[in-house]
Amino acid sequence: MSLVWTVLLLFVAAAVAPAIVRLNPRAAGRILALLPAGIFVSLLARMPDARDHGVVERITWVPSLNIEFALHLDGLSLLFALLICGFGAVVTLYAGRYLAGNPHLGRFYLAFLLFMGAMLGLVVADDLIVLFVFWELTSISSFLLIGFDHEREASRKAALQALLVTGGGGLALLAGLLLLAGASGGTFSLSEIVALNGVVREHGAYPAILALVLLGAFTKSAQFPFHFWLPNAMAAPTPVSAYLHSATMVKAGIYLLARLDSTLGDTIAWSWSLSLAGGATMLLGAVVALRQTDLKRILAYSTLTALGTLTLLLGLSFEDSIKAAVVFLIVHSLYKGALFLAAGNVDHEAGSRDVLTLGGLRRALPLTAAAAVVAGLSMAGLPPLFGFIAKELTYKAKLGFEASSYLLPAVAVLVNAFTFAAAAVIVLRTFFGRTGKTPRTPHEAPLEMWLGTVLLAGAGLMFGVLPAIVSDTIVGPAVFAVLGRPMTIKLTLWYGPNLALLLSVLTVVLGLVTYLRWDSVRLTLSRLDGIHRFGAEAAYDRLMGRLVRTAAGVTRLLQTGDLRHYLIWAVGLLLALGAAALVRAGGIHLAVPAADYVEWALALATVGGAVGTALVRSRVAALLSLAVAGTGVALFFVVLGAPDLALTQFLIETLTLLLAVAVLTRLRTASQRGGESGRRLVHGTVAIMAGVLMTLLTLAVTSGPFESVVADFYARASVPSAFGRNIVNVILVDFRAMDTLGEITVLAVAAIGAIALLRFPLEQLPDREPYDSLVLRMTSRIVVPLLLLLAGFLLLRGHNAPGGGFIAGLLASGAVVLHVLVQGTASARRIVRVSPEWLLAAGLAIAVLSGLVAAFAGSPFLTGLWVSIDLPAGLAPLKLGTPLLFDTGVFLVVVGFVLSIFLVTERA
Amino acid sequence: MTSAGVICMIAGAFFVAVAALGVLRMPDLYTRMHAATKAGTLGAGLLLVGAALLLRDPWVTARAVLTVAFIVLTVPVASHLIARAAHRSTPFEIWQGPNSSKRGAVNRFPQDNEQ
Questions:
Q1: 0.90 cut: is pTM over it?
Q2: ipTM beyond 0.85?
């Protein structure tokens, strides 16, 4: 099975998961777990492929940008892929029982499998952009899973926090990856970049790349100071915590660091950043874990310790440390997963996760307890478990890094001792000692739930006793992939008496002492709780608080709810931009164009209308004056020989007037305009300045030489290539149909927005009654059908004479508006049976369909195709074409638009 | 034909001019409305007929006839509505003649509920 299909299959599974849950909620977990289990087995079968440099699969994606959908399976990818799928199968099975009966189980599996697919894609991605896409997908699915219990505020807050922290890091990562690609000669291929073997280190952008990539990795892997989101993410259901927040997602940053170790690593900046961040995280996690009493929070902080350790080891960046990191990664996933699932069992069966109330659960949950003991021993780093090997290797790496410094080993001993104590707290306090009082009477968890715990803990034991199983098959290829050179891996429980063993003994002693005095340690630590006020999370909270306050302030400033303010802002900005354009052009050459007496008369009428609008006090009179100005402009279009523009302008004027008057009569505002003179002064100034600016711009444009190349082209090409004599319409529906499609889409979206905004507040309005003039009602019965007929006529002839879908649409909607105003809302509702939304949808669908016809015929989308139908003698052949269909779509969208705006206010 | 067209055009222009004068000079809303309606129906109608007669294109003639029909259909309705609105909004003034002593007086009509 190819990698692409493997990843795709998980996304498909995510899509069908809700359906499976609906069909059989009880067996859904068992069914869905088969997929990751199958992938796990198929990956095991592909183990030989992953040796050496592995295999790459490429699918062309964006060739113009050099981006490929490339996936790559090598030792490192395989290690992570095995963890993701093996662990994924176990947790999928587990969650089916853990969340049994939850009404949102389908949604859970959707997000969970989405995450699994994204995570798998992330670790096998060979293209930086593909990697980034999957990286972000894991952040998003993690957001959904942490916020799964979305009715609790804590969950929502934690989900948002995790998303903002990891998503913010993701943005930095994107920038870093783009710079990295640039520094590697423009390739996005990870395997090619790794093969360059550190050329990037010499590049000038190296510091920026390093900082940005580390920001991405540190936020994802919860390194100090971005660690705070991880403990909060424990708001997620336990299977999610076990899977995402200990075994997989938080390791994505570790994966990236390991992957880029040979490219970016082995510099002083790399070593110091990773060691400091990793060391701080490790120490912080170990100390704070001892302060906690909630099982999941103890585990979360000890996960921080593990992530810090991994980062530190990768930062040391030499053979022993890489080997230790790979082994520790496996160990940690196994024991932490087992313990998380055990904690889930305890929570599920006993109803509490507080180690202070729990105790003696080994009698009620024997299998869970056994698994937890084994996993706990691994966490504590005791032989004969795999955890012991990992700890020995870690010590060896830290001792070997810089023999002269004892700080590193000393810190490591301290951290490991605390981890030992934490493991002891988790296992002994929960399963041993006197039986605590729990909210529920505990009994063993069902098979699906203890199986995973036992399997993971058992694997830790098996790898410890027989490390040869993993040393050559998994650890070796992974270390090879990181280092880029082969290395013999020999794992054993007994390396002979050496300094590392001595440190281990010291660790156990210290750990035991810490555990025995845990209660007082915890109390001491709890006295330091106040320190949180200075921590990273408090900084995050302050930042978010400030962000919200700033946003509220800006909203109050701009979103006043007063249309006049919006207009002032918009026109003011236009003024500033226009003025800037004029200044940049260095002044303009003004030439007042020659005009005959008709034009002067029209200009006078238009100006008169505008002045009247500003001066009259009655609102209706102001609207009428405005219509005078608009009609003057329309007459200008007639005089200048632009019938299409003129028709449109006339119809728009009429419709605007109708709509405005209709709204005025519906909303009970004062019929007289008032307002302080100060405000009128501001409005007048802005309006006059806008008018002056537009005049200047128009004069500037028209006084320059007129370049008619484009106009000439359309005039020449219109009839031969588009079979239309009306150039305006031909441009709209053929030459630039794509633009028109965009415009009608915007219209449709705006109309839907208006519907959404207005429908609810206007629901209280009564229906409009029929107008009580018999003469008017009877006339409208004749006039409205005539207008609709005329609209159809204008639509059909539009390609060759003034008209077209836009004009016809305005006319038809005008007719409907007239009908509503005269005959009342109820009558209109009886006649217009489709809602405006349907008109919008149908119009868009027809327009797209008319373009697809050409696409199916092999021409580019929206190419005009024509058929000629011969009519009986004496009549010109009838020409029908897809542009006419397209124009019909435009017509419907325009009608839908006007009707949504109007009918929503009329509730029809 | 041509002379008929010219006569129509001149008559149409005359009616529009007189209507404009009427709107300016007539003393109250009803009389002004009466003048304005004449401009619409008679004035524009005759101008359209004149254009049809002069151009002698069947396509133009058809459109002129349709437009005249439309004007004749709608303009009286518009003036009816204006008159109705004026009639219903009280108080309103009606002109009583040039020598009336009641010039400018306010007459109250009962609110009628004609349907």
A1: no
A2: no
